[in-house]
Design a protein that fits this description.
The chain is built from eleven helices and five strands. The radius of gyration is 21 Å and the shape is elongated. The N and C termini lie far apart (47 Å).
Length: 246
Amino acid sequence: MPFALIEHFAELAARTTRAADLFAHTEAAARELGFPLLALVHGLAFRLPQHGLIDLNNFGSWEETFVRRKYYLDDPALLAAQRTNTAFAWSAIRKLVPLGDRHRHILEDAARHGLGNGYTLPVGVIGEPHGCCTFATKGPDLPPVANRRAAALLGAEAFNAARRLHGFPARSAAVPLLSRRKLECLRYVAIGKTDAEIAIILGLKESTVRTYMAMLRKDFDVVSRSQLVAAALRFGFIGYDDAIAP
């Protein structure tokens, strides 16, 4: 594995002060590994282009098509990146996402725009939009396994530097500290329990539960129960399974 390349890149990335320069360094290293095409993106960047999210790529006409046709709503690589924590070749997407006609069409259209095959690294940080780093080839074959593993290391270093240059983490104290009781209330809210029901379950007065709920809304800086559950999911206090009643 070309560790020297990754070490050199990590040093460059740590010193870089401009996103354009970071991408140029990443692109050059990716080409050495056999990947001429590259994208560092937050999945929400396509829906919220004015929010300062990460979107660095050299996909050319494919990016324009991707946005114009709203492929980002159903892109199988973006969907697959949310279902695993390890880098994957595009040939493995069907194991992570059931492919429908729309998904297959997107992959076929990508190939028509010069993206023959790809290798995607998911990037997830609590409290931040989900992202990924994708390396692509112009033909059907991927570089050797050692180069792919090096690409995963490269992508992790590059995305970390991109986060810094885009102002992430946005707030150092964004994740609140919650007591055991607050966590219990939060988890029952997630499955749709009312304050009265939570009080019965936990053996508390309803007024006490209402106080906990008011404190939780203040902790997460939200005003409604639905916003509270969404924020708790975002910060990792509850998982999607917690939001489904047994």
